[in-house]
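Project channel, design review

CF: Before we commit to the Streptacidiphilus jiangxiensis constructs, I'd like one complete example in the thread so the newer folks can see what an input/output pair looks like. Taking Polar amino acid transport system ATP-binding protein.
RD: sounds good, go ahead.
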Amino acid sequence: MSTVATAPVLRFESVRKTFGEQVILDGVSLDVPEHSVTVLIGASGSGKSTLLRCANLLEEVDDGAIWLDGEDVTDPRVDADAVRRRIGVVFQAYNLFPHLNVLDNITLGQRRVHKVTRAEAERRALELLDRLGLAAKAKEYPDRLSGGQQQRVALVRAIVSEPRVLLLDEITAALDPELVTEVLSVVRDLKEQGRTMVLATHEMAFARDVADQVCFLADGVILERGTSAQVFGDPQHERTRRFLSRVREAGRL
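CF: and here is what came back for Polar amino acid transport system ATP-binding protein:
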């Protein structure tokens, strides 16, 4: 789906984040257009996950600003919980509540945070579960599901509230290789639906196929940014070329 030429849904403006003396993000600026998929690539420790955590206000930025629909959400006066209600997040750990069944895991936030009635929350959840082939698992508990099924449930939980942007952080990292495909197919479907997404991934072939915008991070800086064809097909920065060369040697691209 083509991007819309309007103000970005999410904007990072000169974002800086440190942990002690270590600089994790060093002046990162990035626009995420509506109905687009932005993919963050780079070696472990390059700052990808921290950037996503800053976007969801799980980490406080040291300098710069993050804007969601034109609102500076890093302003200390902003209600962080209200911001998070507009952002869907899925991490590599599924983070499902083990004492709740699938349906309750998905609807809890809808009922408690968004004040949706139980009947409406369950209707939305069951519709999405059916779409992802999980309707029969609605009453199961997480420990009865495969890793791929748990991650798909986590995706349903993240999108059921229709967030403005979906942040996906290495969502296949904890999965066995045979389960990766089923989770990535869900992300492809979300792209086709026009969801605005930012995802960090080591699945390079997937990143190449799904991304509208690719950002290569190293040492907390975006060294290269462009379309999938540009970054994967004709990288301009030497470090990008070296990174992709190693990826190809490992058979991941």
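RD: helpful, thanks. The first strand starts at residue 10 and ends at 19.
CF: The chain has a mean pLDDT of 92.
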